[in-house]
Structures are given as C-alpha cells and as structure tokens.
UniProtKB/TrEMBL annotation:
InterPro entries: MoCofactor_Util/Proc (IPR052698), NAD(P)-bd_dom_sf (IPR036291), Xanthine_DH_XdhC (IPR014308), XdhC_CoxI (IPR003777), XdhC_Rossmann_dom (IPR027051)
UniProt feature coiled coil, ranges: none
Protein name, per record: Xanthine dehydrogenase accessory protein XdhC
Pfam families for this protein: XdhC_C, XdhC_CoxI
Gene, per the UniProt record: xdhC
Domain spans labelled XdhC Rossmann: 111-258
NCBIfam families found in the cross-reference section: xanthine_xdhC
Domain of life: Bacteria
Domain XdhC- CoxI, first and last residues per copy: 17-75
Organism taxonomic ancestry: Bacteria, Pseudomonadati, Pseudomonadota, Gammaproteobacteria, Oceanospirillales
Amino acid sequence: MKTQRPESWHEALHRLQRDGLPHALATVVTSAGSTPREPGARMVITADAVCDTLGGGTFEFQVIDAARERLASGELGMSLEAFALGGRSGQCCGGFVNVLLEIFPGSAATLALFGAGHVGSEIVRLAAPLPWQVLWHDSRQGVFPDWAEAQPRLTCRHTAGLRAAVAALPANSHALVLTHDHAEDRELVDALLHRNDMASIGLIGSHSKWASFRSRLSDAGHDEAALTRVRCPIGMASGGTGGDKTPYAIALAAMAELLPLMGSAERADRRGLDPGELRALFGQHPS
C-alpha cells in the first residue's frame, strides 16, 4: 500500500487560498539561542489541521493554539508572538523565538445559487475567477455537470428539502433563485424572506411572474418592505440583457448586477504590513 506524502506548508497555502478557506500562516522570523527551527520555517494552521512543523513540542502547540484562537475570533491581519522556550514554552533548549502569525479569512462573500439549469451553469462558470464561495443547489438528482468538481470554492448540493437548504445558508449570503419549477422558486423566495438576514435575493423571470409571486407572497404574510428586497427580473439593474435571452446573456447581466452588491472582498495576496507597524511589532523605533 502506497503511503501518501504529507502536504507541505506551501502546497497547503496554495490550496486553502485557491479554495477560499480560513487559515493561518506561522513563520519563524527571529530566533536566539537553542531553538527547534531556524528563521524562515513555516507552518499552515486551520481549525482542524496542521501542515508542516516549526519543530514540535510545547512551543509548536502554543503557536497552533494562538492561531486557532484568532481564526475563531475572526481577528484578521498580522501579529507577532514571542516565545521564551525555557519560560513560556517550558522546553529545555531555552532559546527565544518570534513567530509572525498571518490570519487569512477565506472568501468573504457567499453566493447561494438555486437551480442547475442553463443559466445557473453559466453563472457558476462566470463566478469561477471571483473570490466567492458558491453553494449550488438543485432538487434533482444527477444534474450537476462533471466540470463542477474541479471548480474552486464551489459546493454542489442535492437539496430535496428546500426550506432546510435555505435554513443552512450562512448569514449575509446572496441568493439567486432560478430553478426549473415555479413552485420551487416561490417556496425558496418565501423561505429566504423569512430568514431576514440574507444580503440580497434575486429571482429569475418576467415582470408578470413577479407580479404573480408578489400577490402570493403578500397573502403568505410578507409586507411591502420584505417584498422590495427581491430583485426580479435579475439583471435589470445593470441594464438588462437588451433583448438577448440566451443563458449566457442572462447570466452576464445577473453577474454585473451582483458584483457591486457583493463587493470586492479583501484579497489575501494583496495585503501588506506598513513599515511602521513592522518596527512596532519588533519593538524598534525609527531613528
């Protein structure tokens, strides 16, 4: 039986940033005396996994704990952690290590897409380069395309229970409803409006479809303020499709409408540390 090689820190970092998942990068930046690893040693930490090592022992467990505390609290950015190995870490080597912790939040935006038809497929393709988590739902079996398995930050979910699927969405998700069935569309919009914490709700269809839905949803107890939260037809705020009703054109208009709503989430690879902040971390002062 072939043993799988452990994932290195740089492989894990690439995978987690590609998939938009929360993680921390721990880097030994300075050391003095006898220490387990040299400056430049790195380790990647998530809520339930560790890739690579800073040398093991109590010191490494303390780094992992510090990283996971910051991941759990949502505290982003960089910080410097100091470890006196004979004091704080209780290790016999007795050296001193400074570790830079960088916390990456993962994708800041979630798109919940209901419907794996032609328009849904085009929207998923268009969303591939964007730093969004995409949750793709459909009540039918075997409708997701094979290529979806390789798309980063995409999760395909067969959802027989529509209301349960809506209840499981993260707060502040952006939802697009475009299933194959009007009854499903109406049930989904009803459930989404009951959540009261969706960032936006879009529904595919015509003005006449929305007029019918508005009447039924109003009868179900949704007031005018709630109903105005639903965009229907989708893509109209960006100028619509100009008469082109092909799936790609509808998807393109819907994405153009979504972009300003979902915002430009902070990209981890564009973050930096101001030189003044760096001097403060190391206890230095400008001359």
